[in-house]
Design brief:
Elements (H helix, E strand, L loop, with lengths): L6 H24 L3 H27 L10 H15 L3 H10 L3 H22 L5 H27 L1
GO molecular function: metal ion binding; oxidoreductase activity
Protein name: Rubrerythrin diiron-binding domain-containing protein
Pfam families: Rubrerythrin
Length: 156
């Protein structure tokens, strides 16, 4: 079976966090509501923290053989999934431009947080046991972000 070094998987995670930070900063600037500004600014700062953790993990990741019978298929799955949730810089700019109201911004943010949770759950399969607790903490934070965004949407 072929082994692969999953540092590219962490590069996907880094891009997810970079896009999240860019989106949240743009939304904080776009809307005047103080609660929206505060929430989006907070979430942008959280994305920066997550990015740093993934950058660190990418430099220290071990070779890993997935549990699947065909590791190439597992890696292809991870790549395909990442490609569906990671926007190119042009696409994220386009999405930011199209969002014109707080409800749309929150809906997109909620969906993105859920996509991130699913991706990071898969990333746990690519790290050593001791690193899984770090991923678990990030997943817990992403869940809190989801709840925060959902609650804020209900208030609108």
């Amino acid at each position: 079976m072929a082994l692969f070094k999953p540092d590219e998987i962490f590069q996907f995670a880094i891009r997810i966090e970079e896009n999240g930070e860019k989106f949240y900063r743009a939304m904080a600037d776009k809307f005047d509501d103080p609660k929206l500004k505060e929430t989006f600014s907070y979430l942008a700062d959280e994305e920066i923290k997550h990015k740093r953790l993934y950058e660190d993990m990418a430099t220290t990741v071990e070779k890993y053989e997935p549990f699947e019978t065909y590791p190439e298929e597992y890696f292809a799955y991870m790549r395909a999934y990442a490609d569906t949730i990671i926007f190119s810089p042009d696409k994220i700019e386009e999405k930011i431009e199209k969002i014109s109201d707080p409800g749309s911004a929150l809906e997109f943010a909620i969906a993105t947080e859920l996509d991130s949770i699913l991706y990071y759950q898969e990333v746990k399969n690519l790290v050593s046991e001791k690193r899984r607790s770090v991923i678990d903490k990030i997943v817990d934070e992403e869940r809190r972000h989801f709840v925060k965004l959902t609650d804020l949407k209900k208030e609108l």
